[in-house]
Specification:
2 copies of one chain form a homodimer. By secondary structure, chain A is mainly alpha-helical. The first copy, chain A, is 65% helix and 11% strand. In chain A, a hairpin with a 2-residue loop joins strand 2 and strand 3. The first copy, chain A, is elongated and about 65 Å long. The first copy, chain A, starts with a helix and ends with a helix. The N terminus of chain A is likely disordered. At the A-B interface, helix 1, helix 2, helix 3, helix 4 and strand 1 of A face helix 1, helix 2, helix 3, helix 4 and strand 1 of B. The first copy, chain A, binds a DNA duplex through helix 6.
Chain lengths: 122, 122
Amino acid sequence: MSKHEHNTDCCETPEVHKDLLKKVAETMPEETELYDLAELFKIFGDSTRIRILFVLFEAEVCVFDIAAALNMTQSAISHQLRILKQSRLIKGRREGKHIFYSLADDHVRSIIAEGREHIEED
Amino acid sequence: MSKHEHNTDCCETPEVHKDLLKKVAETMPEETELYDLAELFKIFGDSTRIRILFVLFEAEVCVFDIAAALNMTQSAISHQLRILKQSRLIKGRREGKHIFYSLADDHVRSIIAEGREHIEED
DNA sequence: CAAACATATGAACAAGTGCTCATATGATAA
DNA sequence: TTATCATATGAGCACTTGTTCATATGTTTG
């Protein structure tokens, strides 16, 4: 039995396809979960949003201060905060004129940590 | 000392800004790392690529079989495999006419697992 | 009330993305 | 070699995305 025996007849014997399709169908998440997963990672796929999250790692901050820390306009930051809030990665707390933003939970930290691990290996 | 005292003078006292800016500057990764991080998450931000990865969770598979499992064209899958390979999330091994793809390392699993955890909480 | 401040939002536009189609490359078999 | 199979790739197109600019909403202060 060769090392790759189960693969050598790929694209030829329909049984292999059936087995694979069955296994994949069993473990593949629902369509909606796949979509949600992609949507979630899309959020992390922009360096401005990642920078915002790194700011929020340090403190609960208002929009103006995030804009200052990242040297960007208030409008640009506000648009991104809305996206982050919609994905429930951050939350806002109003206090008078200000709205202070903070991380919604610790998943954000662990997801980014996992990403950094992949990047830093070489 | 009120619960949020360090925030109430946000946007007013320059000292607070300086402290925040300093703290942020210390912990914020380099520009290139931020860029790479965003690029990495961008890869996961597409449900076709996520589906491909779920197939590769199950077996080492050739392009044709991935296309069959996902009911997509060979060309579309091939384009995505190139992107996944460039990010070193998967690797290809040629065996005759076929090229078998598999996960490059276990980071892929843990990153996706972290993402699912965030989604499934409610 | 009006004025000032903090934040949010809609339109518009440039840049990027994923798929399709046609074609090219690479490997094997006749 | 030629034919065939497996995979890769370039161009084109519809669609999405992030920013800017102008403006709106909401809160506090005078």
